[in-house]
Amino acid sequence: SQQGEEDPQALSIQEGENATMNCSYKTSINNLQWYRQNSGRGLVHLILIRSNEREKHSGRLRVTLDTSKKSSSLLITASRAADTASYFCATAAKAAGNKLTFGGGTRVLVKP
Amino acid sequence: ETGVTQTPRHLVMGMTNKKSLKCEQHLGHNAMYWYKQSAKKPLELMFVYSLEERVENNSVPSRFSPECPNSSHLFLHLHTLQPEDSALYLCASSQGLQRGHTGELFFGEGSRLTVL
């Protein structure tokens, strides 16, 4: 079974609304990262949160990490049509030497 | 522009062909990766090279053969592939795998492979 699993698998919202997606993982991690992928393109790194951090912000992005529940959330505030993409969480697990393991992603559609 | 360039962007090949995917990074990183992305499946790590030495081979069939001649270049040689190998192949690089590095990956745009 995969290390990171996103929820929901797909999300459709109106422009201006907030989008929240969650990631759960199974083993202890060094850090958790979120990536974005536009259709048919490469992944782009968004934000990294270390295991000793609880919350991080970057522009309209807010990431939380709860190591006791082995879960993370990504919040995109005031969404724009250009935010339409797939979002992936990836965990750098201590047991895996920091190599990243990706979840299946959340497909976000922001309707204008 | 992420600093990681993949060529070709699209490739169609028959099952008996031999082709290669190329990746080049201009970021001074010393670790490079091949990932496979198939429809409705999570990204699958195929190979990892650290300091030009292969450190990971995730049970990938021998019809996929990686090559890392130096820290800036990575190839994936393809031979007698199957239709189920059709996927987006993503190359990535990072500063390294040593303890303390973040593991943040910089991806190329991918090579879309179709096997007929």
Descriptive tags:
heterodimer, A: 112 residues, mainly beta, 6-stranded mixed sheet, 5-stranded antiparallel sheet, 0% helix, B: 116 residues, 7-stranded mixed sheet, 4-stranded antiparallel sheet, 55% strand
Q: What does this molecule look like?
A:
The complex is a heterodimer of chains A (112) and B (116). Chain A has 112 residues and is mainly beta. Chain A has strands at 5-7, 10-14, 19-24, 29-37, 43-50, 55-58, 61-66, 71-76, 85-93, 100-102, 106-111. In chain A, strands 2, 4, 5, 9, 10 and 11 form a 6-stranded mixed beta sheet that branches. A 5-stranded antiparallel beta sheet of chain A has the order 1-3-8-7-6, with no helix packed on it. In chain A, strand 7 (61-66) and strand 8 form a beta hairpin. The termini of chain A are far apart. With 116 residues, chain B is an all-beta fold. Helix content of chain B is 0%, strand content 55%. In chain B, the strands form 2 sheets. In chain B, strands 2, 4, 5, 6, 9, 10 and 11 form a 7-stranded mixed beta sheet that branches. In chain B, strands 1-3-8-7 form a 4-stranded antiparallel beta sheet, with no helix packed on it. The model of chain B has no long low-confidence stretch (mean pLDDT 90).
